[in-house]
Specification:
Helix content: 25-40%
Domain SHOCT: 255-282
Pfam family, one: DUF4429
Shape: globular
Order of helices and strands: EEEHEEEHEHEEEHEEEEHHH
CATH topology of the largest domain: PH-domain like
Distance between the termini: 57 Å
Strand content: 25-35%
InterPro entries: DUF4429, SHOCT
CATH architecture of the largest domain: Roll
Domain DUF4429: 12-106, 139-227
Radius of gyration: 20 Å
Number of strands: 14
CATH class of the largest domain: Mainly Beta
Protein name: DUF4429 domain-containing protein
Number of domains: 3
Largest sheet: 4 strands, antiparallel
Strand order of the largest sheet: 1-2-3-4
């Protein structure tokens, strides 16, 4: 095709076997897009294409990535806000006919039958070295190993006693990322040795926790995706079993609810986010 379709925050360049997405670097552009810069999405990594009405006089052209094709979306596990979805192109409503044309052209180039999950990652992620500051540690990834260097002001006693940690990729079986967008999140490494991990993330030396201003999505998510891609290249990735949340100290829950209330009063958390997260915390009692 060789054409370019420009929207808000990004432009898509259509090629015979891929779509090159170039993200803007303006002040209004989501920070995740600015970090990604540009991404080449092979058509074999696309499961479908949709064009839907957007907000305030816009339309949205979106590619649906195949399961397992993009490590960024795999590790995000549906936690990204719509505005930070790298597969959405938002356009003015008057360009709907043009967007429909490109949607049809893309659909015509996709396999007629459902290809199913991808056997390997097809969309590249940011290359190492990468690093970011979590609430309790500085996390670094050099392409071969993940390192956590604890902050004495944030790390739990259990982590501080365990000492700084380094995890070779070959010894990992997977990566778990929880978004810090609402209240708290974490990045947790799953080891191939099967050693039982503490139920609470802040007690697990194979994890770092996020807080307000620490471990932001645009820093921690590309980091997690790069680690996952390296783990996948090193061997099969084990999907961690889902376990019931452990009951926590009531005093700890009360403190977290108090902090959540402060974020709500400061306007950093919406009414809905406050209610949902408060219910989640109370359920842990």
């Amino acid at each position: 095709m060789g054409d370019v379709l420009a929207g808000f925050h990004a432009a898509w360049e259509f090629e015979s076997d891929s779509v090159l997405i170039r993200y803007e670097r303006g002040i209004r552009t989501p920070k995740l897009f600015q970090v990604l810069g540009e991404r080449r999405v092979p058509l074999e990594a696309v499961a479908g294409v949709a064009l839907t009405p957007g907000k305030r006089g816009t339309v949205v052209l979106r590619m649906e990535p195949r399961a397992g094709a993009d490590p960024l979306m795999e590790v995000a596990a549906g936690q990204l806000k719509e505005s930070a979805d790298p597969y959405r192109l938002v356009l003015p409503a008057e360009r709907e006919v043009l967007a429909e044309y490109y949607a049809d052209e893309l659909r015509a180039r996709l396999p007629k039958d459902d290809p199913g999950p991808a056997g390997s990652h097809l969309v590249p992620v940011p290359e190492a070295p990468l690093q970011f500051k979590a609430y309790d540690a500085k996390a670094s990834f050099d392409g071969g190993a993940v390192s956590f260097r604890w902050f004495w002001t944030g790390a739990s006693t259990a982590k501080w006693k365990a000492g700084d940690q380094t995890f070779p990729v070959a010894g990992l079986s997977g990566v778990e990322w929880r978004s810090p967008e609402v209240f708290e999140g974490h990045l947790r490494l799953h080891r191939r040795d099967g050693e039982p991990a503490p139920a609470e993330v802040d007690q697990d030396p194979a994890s770092v926790v996020f807080g307000l201003g620490y471990g932001a999505v645009h820093e921690s998510l590309p980091f997690a995706a790069a680690v996952l891609a390296a783990v996948r290249r090193a061997g099969p990735v084990a999907v961690p079993a889902v376990t019931a949340a452990a009951h926590r100290d009531p005093a700890d829950i009360a403190e977290r609810i108090r902090h959540l209330g402060e974020l709500h009063q400061a306007g950093l958390v919406t009414d809905e986010e406050f209610s949902v997260k408060k219910a989640e915390l109370l359920a842990q009692l």
